[in-house]
Write a structure and sequence with these properties.
By secondary structure, this protein is an all-alpha fold. Helices cover 75% and strands 0% of the residues. α1 crosses α3.
């Protein structure tokens, strides 16, 4: 019985961490395109990269990556919220002030992230949405699921109504103006701190609008789904051979990929109907990814995937911020000033290389330290006292129970 409990505990922790690590990869593949050039943010293609190979790489990203991994990251945030509640209860600590301090710390880190590293931050959005999750933490599972469905449905419905009542071409700049804006944004990346911070602050209006209309509601919906999943410990006793995982794959992949293909053919994020289709179908593909990864991580032949991904997911906040810092150093005038010089293939390859290095460094770091630097800082804020950073010799390695 004790062995089963140890296995369940180990599976829960490392499965969640590994899934979070997987989500980090997808988020970076998307984010780095905005870090590398001003063109994606202005919804136009860089005229220097219009070859067939460039189009194929962009298309693959739209089909398999764009708008999928944010949902997974949000779901895992809600799941981890329940683990934090359990941790506070086990330590007989008062949960409310701890969580409010944590939310405040997360928001502060998000603000610093926006100003100095990357304008496409999600931490501030998460912090605000987490306030609502905190307020709703005692609602029944049924209520949480209903609210999640309503929120997500409202986002899809508003996008569909936008295709009927909103003239997107009247709101968006002309192609020529968008090209000029993209060139200006790329040049601003090549400047110093003043230019970069100014460019980040100029995008605040769009960031807030996106958070209010799309990212915030969908994140909260996923938080609530994660809350229910965490309460029911759905990831605590996974063995990889559950029939439900195969059913999720059989349903999720056809629907999710069909929606992704329509999203890509329809023009991607620059077209409201395409975005609506993606938002409506992305959860299916995300769920299929999760089911596939869980099956792979619990197979004797591919269990190394969990071992590789879990350390990066365990210090996900540090890795998320580090990805932005690396992008800053590669593409802006503060570092190598490579903005606008990377093809889509080079950009994606860079993301994969950086993430591979993060996997190795995360495992090495956790052999010596309990937390990543960002996690340590946030834990200090949460608990209102400085935690012990270094591990004792008797503590297990990150992939041992």
């Amino acid at each position: 019985m004790m062995t089963d409990q140890l296995v369940a505990s180990r599976s829960r922790v490392h499965d969640v961490d590994a899934l979070r690590g997987f989500a980090l990869l997808g988020i970076f593949v998307v984010n780095i395109t905005f870090m590398a050039s001003g063109y994606p943010g202005n919804l136009v293609i860089d005229p220097d990269y219009t070859s067939t190979l460039d189009d194929v790489v962009r298309g693959l990203s739209k089909v398999f990556v764009d708008m999928k991994f944010y949902l997974l990251f949000s779901f895992l945030f809600g799941y981890s919220f329940t683990l934090q509640m359990e941790s506070a209860a086990a330590a007989r600590a008062t949960f409310e002030p701890r969580m409010l301090r944590r939310i405040g710390g997360l928001f502060a880190l998000g603000v610093l992230h926006i100003v100095f590293l990357y304008a496409g931050d999600v931490l501030t959005t998460y912090a605000v949405a987490c306030l609502v999750l905190f307020w709703m933490r005692r609602v029944s599972d049924r209520t949480a699921l209903r609210v999640a469905a309503i929120l997500y449905g409202l986002v899809v419905a508003s996008l569909l109504l936008g295709t009927v009542f909103v003239n997107a071409s009247a709101l968006l700049p002309s192609t020529a103006q968008a090209q000029a804006n993209a060139e200006h944004a790329t040049q601003a990346m090549l400047g110093g701190w003043g230019d970069i911070i100014g460019e980040h602050l100029d995008g605040l209006g769009l960031l807030v609008l996106q958070a209010l209309t799309l990212q915030g509601p969908t994140a909260l919906a996923m938080f609530l789904l994660g809350l229910v999943a965490g309460r029911r410990k759905l990831l605590a006793h996974v063995h990889g051979d559950e029939p439900v995982l195969r059913r999720i794959q059989l349903i999720g992949f056809p629907i999710g990929l069909a929606g992704s293909i329509l999203f890509t053919i329809g023009g991607g994020t620059g077209h409201i109907l395409a975005v609506a289709i993606s938002v409506a179908t992305a959860p299916f593909l995300t769920a299929a990814y999760v089911a596939t990864l869980l099956r792979a991580m619990h197979s004797p032949r591919t269990s190394f995937i969990r071992t590789a991904l879990a350390p990066a997911g365990r210090i996900a906040l540090t890795n998320y911020l580090a990805q932005s810092a690396i992008g800053l150093l590669i593409f802006t005038g503060i570092g190598l000033a490579a903005a606008g010089t990377f093809s889509p293939l080079a950009t994606m390859s860079t993301a994969l290389l950086v993430f591979t290095l993060q996997l190795a460094l995360s495992a090495l770091w956790l052999h010596w330290f309990r937390y990543g630097p960002a996690e340590w800082t946030l834990r200090w804020i949460t608990n209102a006292h400085r935690p012990n950073w270094r591990k004792s010799p008797s503590e297990p390695a990150p992939n041992q129970p």
